[in-house]
Amino acid sequence: MEHGGNINLIENKYGIDKNKIIDFSANTNPLGMPNVDINLNCLEKYPDVEYKILRHAISKYTNTNYENIIVANGSTELISLLIKIINAKQTLISMPTYSEYERESRIIGSSIKYYITSQENNFEIETEKLLNLLSLETNLFILCNPNNPTGKSVSNLEKIISYCDKKNILVIIDEAYAEFFDESAIELINEYENLIIIRGTSKFFCLPGLRLGYAITSNLEIIDKINEVKDPWSVNSLANEIGKAIFNDKEYIKKSKDYISKEYQFIKNSFEKINSCKLYDTRANFFMCKILNSKTSNKLFNYLLKKNLLIRDLGNCKFLNNKFFRFSISNHENNLLLIEQIKKFFTE
Question: pTM of the prediction?
Answer without folding.
Answer: 0.96
